[in-house]
Amino acid sequence: MKSLILLSGGIDSAVCALIAKRKGRELYGLTFNYSQKHKIEIKKAKRLGKEIGFKKHWLLKIPPIVFNSSSLVNKSLKVPKNSFGSEKIPSTYVPGRNLVFLCIASAIAETEGIDEIYIGANSIDFSGYPDCRPEFIRSFQKCINTGTKRGVEGTPIKIVAPLLKKRKKEIIKLGKSLGLNFSLTWSCYNPINGDLPCGKCDSCIIRKNGFKMAKIEDPLNK
């Protein structure tokens, strides 16, 4: 069976790839350059793809205008610091990101004869993004079932989101048990000089708390 991994370069998507690998899947990767400020994650994704053993790894570019309202893309907007836990959806929200990613991934999967799409969406330790919730995943699966040839013919591509309801510490422990090289992963939204974690954005805080609760040392924050 073939699996397509939406690989961002972060811990969650890397763990998804290793879960699929453990199941004996033939692995394919898809990474997006959407003019994100943390471009280092793309480099990390490329290295992860090689280490994990992807048969093919596609890197696709999305014009910045698509996501330019997000502080992860718009250079005139600052990435918020020390704001994790607020009820408001933060400016780091990328409009329709997982919707766009899954649409493209679905088309590639149908074209290439791939059976599953793995996405590292998480609805527990996250920043409140609406496209990381179980409702969204269920709704998109319905779209595939009704809007693709494979779906109509009864062999729909399956969306697999194995980390949806796991806490970050659980994901990190799982990653360790699967042999994930955490030094090849990236989380920070606003790296210092392009390659040092800021330690203050939502993603840095979630990562730091996850490693602390898992009682595992993070090689990026020694």
Structure description:
- It is a single chain.
- With 222 residues, the chain is α/β, with parallel strands linked by helices.
- The chain has a single domain (2-214), classed as 3-Layer(aba) Sandwich (Rossmann fold), CATH 3.40.50.620.
- The protein contains 7 helices and 5 strands.
- The longest helix is centred in the middle third of the chain and has 16 residues, at 97-112.
- The relative contact order is 0.18.
- The mean pLDDT is 95.
What's the layout of helices and strands?
Blueprint: E1 2-6, H1 11-22, E2 26-33, H2 40-52, E3 56-61, H3 97-112, E4 116-118, H4 134-147, H5 149-152, E5 158-160, H6 168-177, H7 202-214
Parallel strand pairs: 1-2, 1-4, 2-3, 4-5
Helix pairs in contact: 1-6, 6-7
